[in-house]
Design brief:
Number of strands: 16
Number of helices: 19
Largest sheet: 5 strands, parallel
Radius of gyration: 24 Å
Bound molecules: flavin-adenine dinucleotide, iron/sulfur cluster
Structural class: alpha/beta
Strand content: 15-25%
Helix content: 25-40%
Shape: globular
């Protein structure tokens, strides 16, 4: 077996404090910060025990070669670490920022499990690729040879973009259609800027554009162009449209003014981050400043809403969830972040109706957890006679998302969907029931994660290349 290089433990404190102070005085903030970040990354990377049973790798959906790029980072071989990390992940710096690492790679780190605190894999991954961008190592794609075949991708979220990257590397002509004015999907208009800076997403879009990917924006497939027209234009089509139908609230007053959808609220906030003029923010309808905000839901979208409302200057922000803390779907880390920022969680509480129009309060039913249901989760039950009114002048619905009815919206026969409305597709290849049509990401899995959309996009692009290869062979016969 090849001998492993000795790992040098790098400390943040320098050996000589006086020399360090003099150094600091002569440097500007960015230089000091960069140096600190490098030391931090190397320190963390050095903590990897190279355990030989890389559970971190097997629990990363992309099976990133984490131990090897940690070793390279620890020994200062950053450009190699970048090349290795980028070889399995289209957007490492994005995953490093927003993957729920506690449930994936870091949650399965052997050091974490032995009680010594995980190696912060995500932050090292982010550091490696941010450095690669700074140093100019990330380049537009230049395929060895161009092909005359083209693929139309519907949806410019992480699934569609990851597929575009693989297809362009193989020289395929790629056009991405999206109904928004900017590409990126939920990376751009869902996830808030305090978790994922928008310039980090936009530089990737620019890179793909410079690589020859054509973006057709403000183009709602089914309205501005038909699905059949896209099929007619391209040799294969990839559906990567995500899930956007908001689960709704019921009960008296549920349609009152001031009760808004999480996706609308977050989209407006993200547009502001780009410096856009946003009338719904200016007129106060999607602006939490000076308001008592109640967010309903217990997932990560709810956490993004409460944390955005705090930043917009809400007078109070409460999050209502019908189960307890231990049973909420959102990440515990996010709950802790929200609590530290001043959000109040009201556990075991469900909305029964709404007072006023515009809304002035949420009628809350107190709940308790009853017997487990078929999935093993305890079902919430109403506690009779314990209702009360929670004051609110902005209520944000964050109860999750469902797929839109694509066959109906696109007036297309033969595109099979599941009973949940997701597109029925082979999980490995993304092949749908239509010849030459593939599908990836949330529209196949239901609301999921960025890293899974990237994996699907990459896998499906490989399957599309096989499909195009076969099509070419048949044409040549
Ligand atoms: C608020 C919020 C926060 C999240 N935070 C995280 C997080 O921190 N970490 C994480 O891993 N995951 C997070 N997720 C989940 C993650 O964003 C999604 O799983 C991921 O973006 C799915 O990628 P996708 O490419 O399938 O779809 P999307 O990112 O949804 O992109 C789909 C694209 O298709 C376009 N589109 C849809 N229909 C049409 C049409 N008819 N014509 C043209 N274009 C169309 C849409 O405009 C959109 O740009 C979050 C989700 C939300 C809602
Ligand atoms: S892609 Fe996500 S799960 Fe995989 S190593 Fe990076 S942060 Fe961890």
């Amino acid at each position: 077996m090849a001998k492993q290089p000795m790992l040098k433990f790098v400390t943040i404190e320098r050996d000589m404090p006086e020399k360090r102070d003099a150094d600091l005085r002569n440097k500007d903030f960015h230089e000091i910060y960069a140096e600190f970040a490098e030391q931090k990354a190397r320190e963390q990377a050095s903590r990897c025990s190279q355990c030989g049973v890389p559970y971190c790798q097997s629990h990363c959906p992309l099976h990133n070669n984490i131990p090897d790029w940690l070793r390279m980072t620890a020994t200062g071989r950053l450009e190699e670490a970048y090349a290795l990390s980028q070889s399995t992940n289209t957007f490492p710096e994005i995953c490093g920022r927003i993957c729920p690492q506690d449930r994936l790679c870091e949650g399965n780190c052997v050091i974490e499990q032995s009680g010594h605190g995980t190696v912060t894999i995500g932050s090292v991954e982010k550091y490696i690729t941010d450095t690669a961008w700074e140093k100019g190592w990330v380049k537009p794609i230049t395929p060895a040879a161009e092909r005359d075949q083209s693929v139309g991708i519907i949806g410019a979220g992480p699934g569609g973009l990851a597929a575009a990257d693989v297809l362009r590397r193989a020289g395929v002509q790629v056009t991405i259609y999206d109904r928004h004015d900017r590409a990126g999907g939920l990376l751009t208009y869902g996830i808030p800027g305090f978790k994922l800076e928008k310039d980090v997403v936009m530089r990737r879009i620019d890179q793909l554009q410079q690589s020859g990917v054509e973006f057709v924006l403000n183009c709602n497939v089914g309205e501005d162009i038909s699905f059949d027209a896209i099929r007619g234009k391209h040799d294969a089509v990839l559906i990567a449209t995500g899930v956007y139908k908001t689960r709704d609230l019921t009960g008296p007053g549920a349609t009152a003014g001031g009760i808004v959808r999480a996706i609308d609220y977050l989209t407006v906030s993200n547009k502001l981050n780009f410096g856009d003029d946003v009338p719904e923010y200016e007129d106060g309808s999607l602006n939490a400043a000076g308001k008592k905000v109640v967010v309903i839901g217990g997932g990560d979208t709810a956490m993004d809403c409460v944390r955005t409302a705090i930043r917009q200057g809400a007078t109070s922000v409460k999050c209502l969830y019908r189960r307890d803390r231990a049973n909420m779907p959102g990440s515990q880390r996010e709950v802790q972040n929200a609590e530290e920022e001043g959000v109040e969680f009201v556990w075991l509480a469900a909305p029964k109706g709404f007072a006023g129009d515009p809304v002035s309060g949420v009628m809350v039913q107190k709940m308790r957890l009853g017997a487990p249901d078929a999935s093993g989760r305890q079902s919430p039950e109403v506690i009779e006679g314990a209702d009360y009114v929670e004051e609110a002048d902005l209520v944000i619905k964050a109860l999750g998302f469902e797929p839109e009815d694509l066959p109906k919206l696109w007036n297309t026969d033969g595109l099979d969907v599941t009973r949940w409305g997701t597109v029925r597709a082979d999980f490995q290849t993304g092949q749908t029931s239509l010849d030459g049509v593939f599908a990836v990401g949330d529209i196949v899995r239901g609301a999921s994660l960025v890293v899974w959309a990237i994996k699907d996009g990459r896998d499906s692009a490989d399957a599309i290349l096989d499909y195009l290869g076969d099509a070419k062979a048949v044409a040549a016969e």
